[in-house]
Amino acid sequence: MPTSQEPKRNQMDRINDFLDQYVLPWPVRFLTFRFVILITIGLLIPLILFANNTVLVLGLNSYLNTMSVAVSSIVLLYATISEARQKQIAQLQEKRAQEDHEHVTEMHNLVLKSLANQQEEIQGLKQLLAAMRGETYQPEKAEPLPDLQSMHPRGSQRYANDDISDRWEKNLHHNTLVSTLREGLAPDADEPTKE
Question: Does the global pTM surpass 0.70?
C-alpha cells in the first residue's frame, strides 16, 4: 500500500514545486505591491459614492471578495510553511546541541583519562624513587573514572538516539490539524535538502 501512495505523493510534490516556483510568486507579488494595496483600499470610495449602480458595486465587491480570499489563502499557506520551517530549525538546533553535548562529554572524558595517565606515571616515579632509596612504596589505589553520562541530571537517557524525538512528543502540545498539514511539508532535519 505505501508503494502505491508514494508515486502520488511524488507527483503532488512536483506539482507543488512547480506552483511554488512559477505560479504562486505572481499573485504574491501582485497582492503585496504597495500601489495595489492602496488602490484596493481606495475602491471603498466608489463603492460608497456609486452605491446605486448595482453593476459597479457587484463588480467591485466581487473583486474585493476575491482579493480577500486570495490574501487569506496566501497568508495561511505562508504561515503553514513558516511553522514547518520553524519546526525544522528547532530540530536542527536540538540535534546540534545534542552533538555539542556529546563532543564536550568526550573531551571531558579525554581530560580525565589524561589525568589518570599522569597519576599513574607519578605513582611509577614515586615507586622508582623509593626503590632507589631502598624503601618500599605502596602505590595509591587509583580512583575509577566517573561515568560522565550518568552524571548528567537525566542520566544516560540524554545520550539515546531517540531522545530528541521522544522529548518532542512528550513536551510539545500536539494539534491534529497542524500535524496533518505539516506531514510531508518539510524534510526531516536529518535528511539533506535539495538545492
Answer: no
